[in-house]
Every structure is written in C-alpha cells, then in structure tokens.
Amino acid sequence: MSSNAPSARPHGTEKRGTGALLRVLDWIEWVGNKLPDPFWLFLMLAGIVILLSWILSAVGLSAVNPATGEAVAVTNLLAPDGLRKIVAEAVTNFVEFPPLGLVVVILLGVAVAEQSGMLSAALRGSVARVGPKWLTFVLALTGITGSIASDAMYVVLIPLGALAFKAAGRSPVVGLIVAFCSVAAGFNASLLPTASDALLGGITTAAAGLIDKSVIVTPVSNYFFTFVSSLVLAAIITVVTETVLAKRGEAIEEDTDTRQQNMGDFEDMRLKPREKRGLRNAGIAFALMMVVYLLALLIPGSPLRAEDGTVLMSPLLINVGIVIAVMFAVVGWVYGRAAGTMTRGRQVPEAMAEGLTSVTPVLVLFFAAAQFTAYFQWSGIGPVLAVYGADFIGSLGLPPVLTFTGIVLIVAVMNLLITSGSAQWTLLAPVMVPMLMLLNVSPEMTQALFRIGDSPTNVIRPVSPYFALVLGYLRRYQKNAGVGTLISLVLPLSIAMLVGWFLLFVAWYLLGLPLGPQDL
C-alpha cells in the first residue's frame, strides 16, 4: 500500500499530519513485509538456538533456578548426542506439540457447526432484529464472541455489520468498522471457549514446563477473565463508536452515493423459518448437554471427577477441548437436521474434513514451531535467560503493574510486525512465562497479558490480509479511501480497547479475582 494512495477525509478535518502518518504506516508495512514467512522464521530461529547452545555452552553459562534450587546450564545441541536427538525426535516434536491435538479436535466440532450453517444463522439472528439503541453493543459482542469461528468471522460479519447499520438508517461505514474491530481487536476474548484458547493454553503449558513440568494451562484457564473482558470490550467499542467514530463515519459517507452500491438485500439477514427451527433445536441440545456436563462434574462420586474426588483436576476440565468439540458437533448436527442442511450421517465427517482444510497452513507452521520449541527446551537457554531476566527485573524494584505494562507494550509492538498471534506467542512464551514465573506471576496471568497486548493492535496492522479486506469494503462507500482513512477510523477503538482492557486486568489483579476455574 503506497503512501501516494489518496486518502478520504471527513469534512472539516485538517490535512496536516496525514502525510507523516502514512509514512509511518508505510515504514511499518515495509518492515513487516521484510520478515520471512513464519514457517521460515521459526526454522531460522531453531538454527539460531542450535548455534547459541554451542556458544553459550562453551562459555559455561549457567544459573540457579530459585524455584527448585537446582543449577541449570546451557546444553550444546551440536554435540553428538544433541545432533542425534534433533534427527531422531523431529516427528515426535511435531506430533506431541501441545497445541496440535487440541486445535485439530476442537476444529472438528466447530467445522460441523459452521458447515451446517448454524454459526452463520446464529450470527445473523443476533444482529438482525436488534433495535438501533443496542445495535452497536450487540454487533460488537457478536464479533468478539464470534472468534469461535476463527478467521471466517471476518468474511461473514464485516458485510453483515455494514448491512445492519444501513438498515437502521446509520452509516454502513460505521457498521463495518465496528464489525472489523470487534472481530480483530477482541479476538482473544469471548463469552465461549474457543480454539484460540486451546492453542494459547498449549503453548503456555510448554513454556511453563521449562520451570515446572507439572503446570498445565487448560483452554479455560483464562475463561473468567475473558468472559468479563468480552462484555467490557463490547461496552468500550460502543462508547467510542457513539462518541467518536459515528461522527467521522457519517462525514465520510456524505462523499459517497451509497444507492449505487450493491451490498445485498438486508432481508437476507432475517432468519428463515427452517433456520429458526434449527437454532431452537440446537439451543435445546446445548442446554441438555450442559446439564449432563455439570452433573458429571459436580455430583459427588462421579467417575469423571479426579481420582481424589476433586473437581479442578477432573478430565472434564483438564481435557475440556474434547467437550467443546463434541458440543459444537452435536449442536451443529441438530441444527442441520432441523434446518435441512445436514440430513445424512455422512455429511458430518465430510464437514469435519472440509473444516480441517482451513487449518492446514497452521499445521505446516506447527511443524517448524515445534522444532524451535523443542530445541529451545533441550538447550536450557530458556530457564537461564528467565533467571537472569527475573533477577534484572527484580533489581529494578518495579511495581508489578509497571512490569505488566512493559509486557503488554512489547507484545503490542511485536504484533504490528508478526501476522500470526500463535506464532508470536510461540516466540515470546518460552522467555516471558518462565521469567514471570520466577517473579511469582502465574503462567495463566502472563497468558492474559499476552491477550491484552495482541488483539487490540490487530486493527492497525497494515500487513494483515484482513486489513486489506476491510479497506476493500470501505471503498465500496468511499472510492478514494486509503490506509490513512481506515487508520483514522480504527485507531481510536484500538487505543481505547488496549487501555481499557489493561485497566480491567489491573483491577482484576489488585482484587485478586480468579482468572479461571483453576484459581478457585
């Protein structure tokens, strides 16, 4: 995207400063495009780890793990034993990569719900009959929670958001920006557990294992926090939209003859009788499964409790990924049967197979990331860096809140250059999680900090393919809209969500509230 691209500006705004903004954005885009594909990035990092293990081992770098009192030293991976291990365990590294199984299993269930049309119907139904007063909040909450459908939400909700606002007599530009920001900036918060929760939990578990191999971070380890976060973020989006964004959006739309734009018929958003019947039946099925799940979890003597009879270590919580997958698959199939979109049993595995095609790029990335993670763990560099890093931060005497602020800002800046959130967390977690564990910050809390820094800056990342997607939708209403136009619309939301979400975390931390079931 060139800085020479014309930029539409609302009437009454000044041109001054726009050129500098675009030059900064062009620089960010240029730097981001110079980075290799994450697959090659992780392979190169794996090579760097091997080289560093040889150098640091040669100089005898070591430290004492204050958590165990044991000495930890760097292991040379270029030694004969190390080379044999690299070759012999390459497949094992991939197969046992913690996020791999969870993501695949959950997507099997989500795929059924998506292919049957249930997710699309539920999304359309949640915004189609909402009054103008609540439209912004409901659209925002739908986008945030809609991360259960992963990247498909961008394609589904952005045009629907524009249509919903247009039908309510408001600017479709505002609608598409609200939809985009809620999906992108709220990606790591949801009313429901998502595949992203499983992915982050697996990466965090692997990183925590560098210090304590008994630590398990489940997909619901941040669930209490993300549930409340989704409501708070939806409220922030609503307030900023109604006080700032609406004025700019309305001004931009004045330059465009929207009557010539073909965005489809708003009536397409209205649910058909068969879709309503499908959602009703799916809701009943979900309620029944939740009752069964809670009974199996809470009834004393249940075989699905932990061996010692406790709830927190129940396989229903530790392995909640399979529960999520089964629930999505069942409600998707029930919807499909009632709506007539999935009437034959063979359509279920077909839907699962079709759904997994979207995850194949992630699987390719996982192979390289798994090797990097394994080498980093074998080398012992992570614990040594964590000990020195913890000592350095501890010597600064910073209050915990300032330490948390620094972590969030580091993640936010890196997010502008690395397009994959899972890739970024795979890179940062092996250092951040052990380092903060040594400062008595739990892995779950560090993971929550990553969520806060990662998601809100998604909307101001020009290297993201979805940034280009929403710019294309914006140009349906303003032909001359450029990068600066889009940034001017999403930047207030991005900053407000970053600051507001972090303040929520600070309050959560100071009050000592549980992040998830494991803290009860």
Strand order of the largest sheet: 1-2
Helix-strand pattern: HHEEHHHHHHHHHHHHHHHHHHHH
Count the helices. How many?
Answer: 22
**How many strands, what sense, and barrel or not for the largest sheet?**
2 strands, antiparallel
- Tell me the total number of β-strands: 2
Going by helix content, strand content and strand pairing, the class is: mainly alpha
The rounded distance between the terminal residues' Cα atoms is: 49 Å
Overall radius of gyration: 24 Å
Question: Proportion of β residues?
Answer: under 5%
* Secondary structure: helix percent: 55-70%
- 3D shape: globular
The stretches of 5 or more residues where confidence is low (pLDDT under 50) are 1-18, 258-267
- Estimate the mean pLDDT confidence: 78
